[in-house]
């Protein structure tokens, strides 16, 4: 078995593990770089780099560059894919179509979970809802430290200055930002 075959077999096993544990990641993009959008650089192996992105709400894409000690680059955007021998990349698969954001509205009650956010960015909360199959709506509350509330039950709509809310429209998978062609040499 050649190195390429072994690498691809391991890649598909990692993707299968990620999907079985609720993460939604694209297949690995071999010999692809996604320059820009870095928000975190870590010393991780290839599989753990992909899993770290899958587990972080703010991570949209990732790069693994074995030439660096801190070889895992997490991205908060979908940088364009460019050919780069030796690098491996991937993006999150969003299995949802999200509705427009609604300012100054609270979807009261119906919380499935809530958590503080590391940065004051409603996109992180919206993305968490997109990735959570049971989530139907979300609230972002910046008033007492940024906080996210995900909804999976009926809720009441009330006016609440400062909050940002949104609803999930559908849960059909799309491969946002994914390179259409994997290296096959």
Mean pLDDT: 79
What's the domain count? 2
**What fold name stands as the CATH topology of the largest domain?**
Hepatocyte Growth Factor
CATH class of the largest domain: Alpha Beta
Determine the structural class based on helices, strands and strand pairing. alpha+beta
> Can you tell me the residue ranges where pLDDT is under 50 for at least 5 consecutive residues?
1-23, 174-185
In whole angstroms, the N-to-C terminal distance is 15 Å
What would you say the CATH architecture of the largest domain is?
A: 3-Layer(bba) Sandwich
Largest beta sheet, briefly? 6 strands, antiparallel
Number of strands: 11
Overall spatial form: elongated
| Computed CA radius of gyration, to the nearest angstrom | 18 Å
Strand proportion, as a percent range, falls in: 35-45%
CATH superfamily of the largest domain: Hepatocyte Growth Factor
Give me the strand/helix succession.
Answer: HEEHEEEEEEHEEE
How many helical elements?
3
Relative helix content: 10-25%
Would you write up a description of this structure?
With 185 residues, the chain is α+β, with helices and mostly antiparallel strands. The protein has 2 domains: 3-91, 3-Layer(bba) Sandwich (Hepatocyte Growth Factor), CATH 3.50.4; 97-170, Hepatocyte Growth Factor (3-Layer(bba) Sandwich). Helix content is 21%, strand content 37%. It has 3 helices and 11 strands; from the N terminus they run αββαββββββαβββ. The protein has helices at residues 3-20, 46-55, 122-131, and strands at residues 29-33, 38-42, 61-64, 72-75, 82-91, 97-98, 102-108, 111-116, 137-141, 147-151, 156-170. Strands 6, 7, 8, 9, 10 and 11 form a 6-stranded antiparallel β-sheet that branches. A 5-stranded antiparallel β-sheet has the order 1-5-3-4-2, with helices on one face. The radius of gyration is 18 Å and the shape is elongated.
